[in-house]
Amino acid sequence: MRDLVVKYLSKGVSRRKFVTSLTKAGLTMTAAQSVLSSVTSATLAQTGPAAPAAGAVAAATGPVKPFQGTGGAAFAEQLIASGVKYVFGNSASEDAEFYEALVDRPQLKYVLTPHEGPGAAMAAGYIKASGEPAIVMQAGSVGMMNAMGQIFNAHKEQTPLVVYSYRTDQSRRAGRDGFEEVLNQEQIVQPMTKYTWLARRADMIPETVRRAFKAAWTPPYGPAYISWHSDYNNDRVRTEIIPQDQVDPRMRVRPNPDDVQRAAKLLVEAKMPLMVVGDEVYKAKAANKAVKFAELLGMPVTQVRQVWANFPESHPLWVGNLAGASLASLPYPKGVDVVINVGNKFQHNGPGPIVPRGPMFIDMRIDHWSMGNVMLTEVPLVADVGYGLDDLIAAVEQLLTPALKLKITERTEDVMKFSTMAKTLRAQITNSPDWDQSPLITDRLTWEVAKFSDPDAIIVHEAGSVNLHSFDFNPLGGRELFFYYGAHLGSGVGTAAGVKLARPNQQVICLVGDGSFVFGPTALWNMARLQLPVITVVYNNHAYGGPHSRVINNVPGGRMVQTGQFVHDYLGNPDMDMAAIAKGFGVDGEVVQSPAQLREALARARKHTVEGKPYLIDAQIARKGVGWAENPWVPPIRVADMRTKKV
Amino acid sequence: MSFVRKAVLALALAPVLAVTCNAQQPENKGLTVLKAKCFQCHTDAMWRDHRQGARGWEATIYRMVGRGGLWTAEEIKLMADYLGTDFGPNVPRANVQAR
Known about the structure:
The structure holds two protein chains of two kinds. Chain A is α/β, with parallel strands linked by helices.
């Protein structure tokens, strides 16, 4: 046996041959594996740190860093090399060697999140607000499944979120229905990710990590999922750690010059062009270019549902967000003959196309996959929209004649007339006969928060059926919006925590519905622990207001309306006290009913945040709309009547 | 407007028209505004079962201002008055399906 060990250590026999020989010598498979493990560990301990392989020595002069240690430590080292500062995670004992590695790597900060869903939302919020990479990790299968809702959101919102969870099965015990084991775990998230991969060996952990970040951050962005057998974290490995910029092209693509010329010609010749902006503008930090382009053509601008506000809402060429399902529903402009999309995903929820048949359509975005899926496309421009706007501006400038400039000036004046009038009409919202009522109406709460917000506040909005107004969002240094495009609920509080972590010097206000709030309040605890002074405002009408209205829309005049029996929407009886929930997580808060109470509460919230503490306002909101009773009907499930024993 | 869209709009408006219109009378001004400035975003299925007075309807329409609706105060009053009469608290729900 001694000879066999010497042969193995001198690489005279493979691991498999070594184990086979031991079993032939009479050892059980378990005993043979144990001997192998002992021999390997003792050898690595004796060789000491960093005995690089021949190839690694050559590379050591460059950015490639040879590494020797546990798989968990290799994981941590590669995250640092990939630019990660924060790891958002929920406890997982199989990641012990990773946690061990963090002790001596303080630059990699682990944020413990008490639930995987809000934890993933926090990571995504941080990534969206900072533009920097981060990773979220959780226990294999069971934790991953809790995070899946937010992976879905990252998928829909195209957030470059990298997700890791180990596989609970050990590489030598896989497929035995082990603890927390589910077959083909990585396939569960595959449809929601750009890239899903299982590291096949422990020394491939760093390469797998690099590839995940490359996939997630290559436009169009999206989540990536990586996994490996949990014993790989414990294995000793020799591998390479490589800075992310050595493997990640972060490609930015210019549009086809011929197509740019065609698009420019269509736009300058249009009687009434219309620009739709989308999140690729924000991601490319190109809002200033979008403004310049709109002004160059005197072109009205709108936006279809997105995460961010991508154009200044106070700009005279802004004609408002699209409220209906088609651009034809805009009150202005009419007679649009050319539409240009700059970076909007166009989420279609109805059968008709958002860009109606008729106007010629120029579609510019890096997310080429969805081009032409629904809309007829005259000019497709696959590009980073920042570069694309540069090229379009240059092309249009070359085509402009004095006559065209005059036409554009006249159009600009026409658009400005509308936007001035629209601003006046929108301001009438304060004339509602219910304006001063208590409990508050939704619009009063929104208006008060808008008046209260700092000029550069960030509003994280997960109040589903609440339409925000009065904020005048402006990506050019004004108030910013972080909406929830993905619609998996429970993202708002976590997102706000992540945004505040990324932007500590801006006021962050989280607007959340009561239904959404109770899906994911645990990030309040992170706000308290990390001293993230976020103001959370809950629109609490003790109901799912959106589903209530939409159900009636789907079954008008039905039995639900006749009887007042809605089984699906009333969250009262008993009412939930969100301020009490917040206190349980270490966050001060209060319940308000009236406009006066709200103003006082907002002042207290500001005082708290100045002192570095989060605050929550549970604002009581009146239920409005068809079919709401003063005391809504509750399904008659009375367990008290079923009890035969008082236990 | 295409034939299909006209047909869809006519179907959407049919219950309103059935309750409110009389071929011999000029159309109510509130209804005219409603038809011109509400149905580009939604049909009447969302509210035709609602019954409330003009003040309640006024509040409802102001909620739509928060959602992007653009009307003058006069237009809002015209619509609220119309709805408060034809869809007032004592008007039976004509469209409720008997089952």
